[in-house]
Amino acid sequence: MSYFNSYTNIYRSFINKQVKAYLFILVFTLLSGAIRKWIIINPASGNIIFLLQLLVFFVFVLIDGNGSWKVVRNGAISVYIILLLVEWINPLNLTFFHGALGFVLHFGLWFSAFYYIANRDKFDLRPLMPIIILFCISEIVLAFIQYQLPADNFINRYADEKQVGGNYAYVGQAVRVTGTFSYISGFSAYLLFHMYFVWALVKMQYKPSVTLSLLFFGLIAAFMNGSRGATYVYVIVMGYMLFAEIRGLNLFLYIKRLIIPVVLVVLVFLARGQLGLESNVSTAFDNFDERRESGIESGEETNRIFGPFREVYNFKGRFPVMGVGIGSTYQGAQAMFGTSPYVLEYGFIENELTRIVLEGGFLLLISRLLLAFYFSQFLSFKKLTKYFIFILFFVTPTIFNVYNAVFTFLGIAILDNVYYHIEKEKLLKSP
C-alpha cells in the first residue's frame, strides 16, 4: 500500500506545472550529455543540444509567464538585469552576440533561483523522491562501470573527441569518471546535486538504507571522479549536514535501522571481494589520494584553492571597473564569434572569479556576491546554514560551467523545498 500511495503522489504531483518543469530540467540535464556522447556524435547537432542546455533555466517562462514576471519585478534582480544589459552593449566587447550569450550565462541561474523563491508554495518536490533516487542509483552504477573500463571504450568517450585529441584525464591508472555528461566537470556537477539531495533525504528521515547508501557510494563516486574540489566539498557538506541535523535526528535509531539490511551485506561483499566492490573502493581511494599528495607536494593544490583570490586581488586587466564585455571569455562564444583582443592580451584564465572581473569588472563581481547573499536570506534554513549555503553558492563556478549551474539550482531548490514544507507542516500542527 505504501508503494501505491507513493506513486499516486508522484502522479498527482504531475498536475503541478512547476514540479513538472523541475523534473524536466533534471532529466534533460542528465540525458543531454549522454545524447551528445553516445547518440548524436555530430558536433553541430551536439552544439544545438548544448545551446538548449544553456536555455533550460528559462523553461519556467514557457509554463508560467505571470510567475516569471515576479522575478523581474524583484528590485535586486531588476538592478542586476540593468547591469547585465549595460555590460551586453559594452563597446569593448567584440560582437553583439558575445554579449547575448554572456547575458544568458550570467542571468540564467539567478532567474531560475528567484523564480523558485517567488513561487515556492507551488513547488512540493517530496513526491519525486523515489524517481530521483532511481536517477541517483543509475548515475552511481554507471560510474562504477566506467571506472573499470579502458579509456578507448565507447562508454568513456568525450562529446568532442577532436577537442581532447585522445588526451583523456586520468586519476592514477584509471580514467576519471565522466558519468553521462560531456566532460569531467559534468559528473563533478552532478555530485553537487547528489550531496544536496542526500541532505534532503536526511531531513525527511527517509529510509536509512537508501539515504546512507547514497551518501557512502556518492563519496566513492567522488573519488572515482578524481576532482579534489568536488570531493572536498562533498565531505564538508556531509559533515555540516550531520552537524545541522543531529538535534532533530535520532542518529542511533537511524543507523540501527540501517545495519541489518545494508551494512552487513556491504561488509560481506568487501570481505569476499564479490562483484569487484572491494577492488573498486580501494582503487578509487588510492588513486585519489595519490593525486592529492602529488598536488600538495608540487604546490598545485594550494594554488588551486588560493590562486583565484590572489589573481582577483592582483588583477592585471586594463578595465577593472566595467570589464571588456560579458561572454568574451566563454569558449563557446569564442568558437562561434571570435576572441576579443583584450582577452588575448590578458592571457589564459582558468578560474571563474578572474573571468567575471575581466568580463564585467569588479562591479559585476560585487553584484554577484551581493545577489548570492540576498538569495541565501530567502532560504528556509537557520541563519548559520544560510551563511554556509551562501559561501558554497558563491565559490561554486556556476557561470561558465552550465552543469554546475543547473545542478546547484536543482540541489539547493530540493533541499530548501523539503525544509520549507516540513517547517510549514509543523506550524500548521502546532496549537
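The record above closes out task 2.4. Task 2.5 opens with a second protein, given below.
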Amino acid sequence: MEDRICINEYPVCVHNEFCGGCIYQELTYDEQRILKGREVLRLMNEKGVDLTYLERPFVPEDIIGAPKIYRYRNKMEYTFGDLVKDGEMTLGMHKKGNFMSIITVDGCQIVDEDFNLVLKSTLDFCNERGYDFYHKKSHKGLLRNLIVRKGERTGELLVNIVTSSQSEFDEQGYADMIYALPLKNVPVGVLRTLNDNIADAVNADEVRVLRGRDYYNEKVMGLDFKVSAFSFFQTNVEAAERLYKDALAMLPDFDGQVAFDLFCGTGTITQALATKAKKAVGVEIVEEAVMAAKENAKLNGLDNCEFIAGDVFDVLDGINEKPDVIVVDPPRMGILPKTIDKIFNYGINEILYISCNPRTLAENIKYMEYYGYKAVKMKAYDNFPMTKHVETIVLLQRETL
C-alpha cells in the first residue's frame, strides 16, 4: 500500500489495510470532523427532528474537534488469535470483514506508545513459552485477551491478561516482565483474569493480582476517581471532561436543587452535579459501576450523592425525591419509549441528553417532541478521531402554553 501522508501528524497507520479500528486514516482531520458533523445533521433530518428551535442553527462545521488527534485512548482490549488459519499467533484487533482473524497492532497511533510496547512484549513472552491461544470454535487454548488501561492525568498503567484455566501460566514471570519494561508511564498493577466462559467476551471467573493493585487513579473535573479493572470509564479523558463541562453549562442554574443522572456509569457527571446541587442521584444498571461510583463519591468527600443499581425504568418508582434537573447519558441503544414516558411523568421543563449514538439520539428526540419537548441547544464532538464515533449533547426544553 502506498505510504500516503495525510495533513496530520503521522503517515497513514501501518495497520490501516487490515485493522478494523480506524476508518478515516486517509482523510485530513478537518475532513473527518466535518464528515461526522454532516452525519449528525443527516440523521436528525432523516428522523424528522425539529431543529428550528435551536438558539443557534447547527452546521457540520460546528462539530468540535478532539484535544488530541493521536495517542488519546486510555483503554484497549486486545484479542489473541491468528491472522490466517494455523498461522503464527497474533495479538490485537479483528481484521476488517473477518471477525475470526486477528491482526497484531503494535504500531497503533491512537494509543499511548506504552500500549504498543506492552502488547508486543506480551506476545513475545507468550510465544517464547509456547502458549497457545483460545480457539473460539473448539473452546480449547490458554490465551484470550490483553487489557491495558492508563490514567491520563496520573500516568498510572494497569495491565490485565485474560486466560482460560486450561494450562499453566507463568504469573510471576509475566508480572516481572511488565514491570521491567522501559515504560514512560508507571505500572501500578498486573492482573490475571481467569475466564472459562465459552462466550467471546471478557468474563471474570477469578481476578488475581500478580503485582501491585487492581485499579488505577484518574482525575476529572477536579475530582478523584479509582478505576478498577472492569469499571467503565471514558476512554478519552480530556475530551470527555470538556464535553461534560459544556453539557452542565447548558443547564439552568441548579444550585440547591435535586439532580438526577440516569444511566450514570461510574458517576462522573453525578458527582459534578453534586458540587452544586442539594442532592444528586445516579442510576445505573451495572452493579460494579455503582459500587465504584459510591467509593469515588466518598473519596471526593461528597455526602450528597446517592447511587442506585438497577434498570432506570424500575428504579424511578422507588425514589422519593422529585428532580429539578435530569441528565440522561444512555448506552448506544438509546432510551426505551416506556422509560422516556416515566421520565416525563416528573413534568420538569429541561432535560439534558448526552449521547454516544446520533441515530438513537435522533429517534429519542423525535419521540420526545410528542410530549412538547424541543431541542433548544445542541453541540457535537469528535472525541475519537480516525473512528466513526460521535458524541452529541442536546438540551430539550418543554414548550409552555
